[in-house]
Structures are given as C-alpha cells and as structure tokens.
Amino acid sequence: MRIAILALQGAFAEHEQMLRLLGVETTLIREHWKDVSGLIIPGGESTSMMRIMRDEGLFEPLRQAILDGLPVLGTCAGLIMLDRNHLDVMDIMARRNAYGRQLGSFNTEEEFKGIGRIPMTFIRAPYIEEAGPEVEILARVDGKAVAARQKNMLVTAFHPELTNDTRIHELFLSMVKSKN
Ligand code: GLN
Known about the structure:
alpha/beta; Rossmann fold; 7-stranded mixed beta sheet; two-stranded antiparallel ribbon; 5 helices; 27% helix
C-alpha cells in the first residue's frame, strides 16, 4: 500500500512522519502520481493550495480520482479543498478561519465517533457549516462539526498529524484497506 500526500504547500511532512510511524509507504506528490491507494491533502493555506493546484494542472485529475473512489483524508485546509466551493467532491461547506483571531489556535480533547476521545489541535481552522444527507458528522467542538465522512472521503478541521495520536490515520488506512 502506498499513500500519496499532496505536497504543494503546508503541513505535508508531518503526515509523512505519521504514516512512517505506522509502517506505510508514502509518496509526496507535486505533479502527477500513479499507483497509490489513497491520498492525503494536508493543512496549509487553502487559497495558495488552490492556486498551485490549478497552475500544476492537478485540479481536474485530482477531482476525478476522488470522484472515482480514491480514498482521501483532508485535514484543515485539506477539508476546505474538498468542499463545494473548491474541488466540489464532498457535500459540505467549510467556514474558514472560523474561530476568530484570538482563538485561532488551540488544543482540546473531544469524542470522535467510533474512536473515543482524541486530542485535537486547531490552527486557524475551519468548521463544517453545512453538510448534505450523505455526510456523517464524526466530531463536534462547541457544537460545531469538525470531522466528517462521506463515502471515500474523511475530513478533520484539526491536525491529527501534529499530535502523537495515530488513530485518525489508522481510521483512514482502514478505509483504504477496505476499498482494495
Ligand atoms: N486558515 C487556513 C485556510 O483557510 C487553514 C489553516 C490550516 O490548514 N492550518 O486555508
């Protein structure tokens, strides 16, 4: 199994370390890719990531691969990239920088459906403002949806790669395994 990590911009190295810890082979992608079983879109800055994705001609191929069922994990800006206003593959609307300036970054611990309590690190994070009927909300913080799944897509508004807890990556890998 080999997992691609979109490495245009942002926190891709941390996801690479996390998967290394789990004994999974990774490939950092900036252009085209082949022979991968899953894809991670990291946190960063969604406007820049979007621009680079278009400049590199990756927008359409990535969108199509996800629509064709490639398992994808989007964290923070990666969540934004999957929403209706960006790649438009997941039936969600993200609200950017949703916690205001003062609360731009914080750590908390909350219940994650099917996993239990997990540490969550938020950095100028979005939350999920709207979700369609096919979307399952997996976690909330202060009533706001911060993690969700729709078919082959898993998103978190927080950064699981910045904690020592590997369970979100393991959940994603179980989605990859059950697909193949
Ligand atoms: N605020 C960023 C954006 O809107 C996301 C922050 C992050 O990925 N850590 O793209």
